[in-house]
Amino acid sequence: MRINLANIKKAKKLLNKSECVAIPTETVYGLAANAYSDRACKKIFKLKKRPKNNPLIVHYYNYKKLRKDCNFNANFLKLYKRFCPGPITFILDLKKSSKISKITTNKKNTLAVRFPKHPIARNLLKELKFPLAAPSANLSSKVSAVSSSDVKEDFGKRIKYVLEGGKPSIGIESTIIDLRNKPKILRLGGLDISIIQRELKKKIIVNNNPSKISVPGQLKLHYSPGIPIRLNVRKIKDEEAYLLIKKKKKIKPNYYFLSKKGDLREAAKNLYSTLRKIKKSKYKSIGVIKIPNTGLGKTINDRLIRASKF
Ligand code: TXA
Ligand code: MG
Question: pTM to 2 decimals?
Answer without folding.
Answer: 0.95
